[in-house]
Specification:
Blueprint lengths: L1 E10 L4 H19 L4 E5 L6 E9 L9 H10 L3 E9 L3
Antiparallel strand pairs: 1-3, 1-4, 2-3
Length: about 90
Amino acid sequence: MKWAELITVRSTDRSVKTLTSALQELMSDVVRKYGAKRIQIYHRQKIDSDFCIILSHEGKPVLNHGSRLGLRIAEALRAFGMVNHSVWSEMK
């Protein structure tokens, strides 16, 4: 079964540069450890302070809370602003 975690963060204007740098480092770390298909990071059009991280998984989904990696990322991003972390299952 395929499932995904969506982690969105809305940062303050003053932390956008720092957050962008942290997200680039995060992307490199995850790609190095898990592969390029595991993580995608998006930047919201016209709102420089909004980002979305999508973690892709296969196998039995972790109910409600998300993976250890997703939980760690969400917790780390709270220092930059409002964070929403949700788990999605592929529709059959």
